[in-house]
């Protein structure tokens, strides 16, 4: 459940912004989160 914290936080922010009729900002937050997730998934692991 610990790993879902950031996901739930972003979801709550997006839903709040959407409820406040700030849908453009909600879309920007969603796309930024998606880009960050993809980046952390595809970036090469640093070799130690």
Kindly describe this structure:
The chain has 48 residues and is mainly alpha-helical. It has one domain. It has 2 helices and no strands. The relative contact order is 0.11.
Which tags fit this structure?
2 helices; mainly alpha; 48 residues
Summarize the topology.
Layout: H1 5-19, H2 23-42
Helix pairs in contact: 1-2
The overall pLDDT average reads 89
Shape: elongated
Summed up, the domain count is 1
Which oligomerization state do the chains in this entry correspond to? Answer: single chain
Quick rundown:
The chain has helices at 5-19, 23-42. It is an all-alpha fold and 48 residues long.
């Amino acid at each position: 459940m610990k790993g879902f914290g950031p996901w739930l936080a972003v979801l709550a922010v997006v839903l709040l912004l959407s409820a406040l009729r700030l849908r453009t900002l909600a879309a920007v937050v969603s796309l930024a989160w998606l880009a960050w997730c993809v980046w952390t998934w595809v970036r090469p692991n640093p070799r130690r």
